[in-house]
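Students often ask why we bother encoding 3D structure as a string. The short answer is that it lets us treat folding as translation between two languages. Here is a chain of 163 residues written in the first language.
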Amino acid sequence: MEASLLVVGVIGNIISVLVFASPIKTFWRIARSRSTEDFESAPYVVTLLSSSLWVYYGITKPGGLLVATVSGVGVVMEAVYVTLFLLFATPQLRAKTAVLVAALDVGFLGAVVLVTSLAVHGSLRVMVIGVICACLNVFVYGSPLAAMTANGIGFILGSIQSI
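And here it is in the second language, the structure alphabet:
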């Protein structure tokens, strides 16, 4: 049974790396044109936060090596994406991205690590971090909706995507 779980975990990690790699074509285009065009940085900033928290969860949870390693790959890839945004965005989008990075990827991540390290102990710590990560996943997969306009069709399509 344990070998089967390992195989499923490795397959899941491979799929997750492919998901992290899916925007490579977009970022190749951004680097070549030296412009972020109309792309939004929020999905990448939020995914960087999520990946960082999943690394923390993986190193906190006994037996969480697969979670920590695949999330570590996600941290590296998302950090590259966010860096490209900071390099090639318009000044206004660069400022917005920098604020998001400071608030979420530094501030929120630091607060979660600090609070759970100091105030939550034992198996409850792993559960609290896991719940935060699970909730954040909803935002990660919903963050592309930030680029949609608020209209009836957008609401319906966004709801379908979220479900």
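Translate back mentally: The chain has seven helices and no strands. Keep this in mind for the problem set.
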